[in-house]
Amino acid sequence: MIEFHLDSRSGVSAYLQLVQQVRRALRLGLLDEGDQLPTVKDVARQLAINPNTVLKAYRDLERDGLVAPRPGVGTFVTRTLTDNTLAAHGPLRTDLQRWLSKARRAGLDDESIEALFMTTFRAASEEDIA
Amino acid sequence: MTTALRTHELGKRYGRSRHWALKDCTLELPAGRVVGLVGPNGAGKSTLLGLAAGMLVPTAGRIEVLDEGPSSGAEHQARVGYVSQDAPTYRGMSVADHLRIGSHLNPRWDDALVRDRIDRLGIDLRRRTGSLSGGQRAQIALTMAIGKRPELLILDEPVAALDPLARREFMQDLMEAVAEQDLTVVLSSHLVSDLERACDYVVVLVDSEVRVAGDLDDLLASHRRMTGARRPSDAGPAGHHVVTASHTDRQSTLIVRTGGPAVDPSWDVTPLGLEDLVLAYLRGDASYERPRPTVEVIR
């Protein structure tokens, strides 16, 4: 069983935080196929949040084929998200470090680097959606 | 039943007072939701809740609670739970006495549920409620209201007098009850932070009038803060409804209700949290539905 936490200052909606925490637990292997998620009632109580928020998160995970409800029993994991991209992390990090030194040589400070990265990242994600 | 509370041009004046504690209140609150009623002190929140609970008689307009008039007999009263602002209990009587009264007066009283809750709260049934802490008394009042198994639970500033821990415990208990029962909750607060996680529907009441009401997610999705170079007027981009506007010599900041995707790239557009959204309506002179002729400065 996992336990949820909410960060009220993150700007991310509560329901999305729940979704992200389940996905992360699936990726890290904290949750396995057949494992049960905390019941809606338990999460509502523990976090003092609206049960509909929890339902919304669980429905989202269900739509992605990660969990399935068993009526009267609870919600269970149906698929894991074990990460098979780990092997690629090393080379990507080296590339990124190279890019970072290049950016510094060009005179960018931390803030400009972060802003440049975030705007490029957002623009790229928006293109993906479009 | 899909509507828990419906009002039409509802108004209330107390005694011979000329002052409307609530006026022209037209609202429709969906059933099965947790509705947060927000507004500054004196906005009319308690009056609206008192009318909904059948404790007050309207001076003008109509009100329907659970598809009936508010005071249509004891059977109807059994469907509505109401806890007023000071979480009243009979201070000289024990918790057990309260439960006895509750079970006698309420046809649908759930004694097992009530005892289980009080057990978990760790409150001795023999104690007089006058000797309990404010938080414990609020919990007893909530437990009594939930114990009658209402369809609509009305809570007037339930956590205002509680410390942060008691506040949290109260909201935990309330959310658990919502998960367990088929229940519509209307609770008021002058603090948005009390409501942010608990509510999925929000009503902002200012100066006896409803400024905005709607599904929380819809409201958050349809409101944006726009900042950009100083504009000559308060008018926003076409199709956007300006809630508030402020200007410096260089910059204009607007809180808008969007009528679609923002098209003008000269504005920097960011989402709003519930607190900022509510504050905009508390400050702003524009209502959700129609423009207001007067500007009121509140707090």
From TrEMBL, chain A:
SUPFAM superfamilies: Winged helix' DNA-binding domain (SSF46785). The keyword Oxidoreductase does not apply. Keywords: DNA-binding, Transcription, Transcription regulation. SMART domains: HTH_GNTR. Residues 12-80 form the HTH gntR-type domain. One of its GO terms (molecular function) is DNA-binding transcription factor activity. This is GntR family transcriptional regulator.
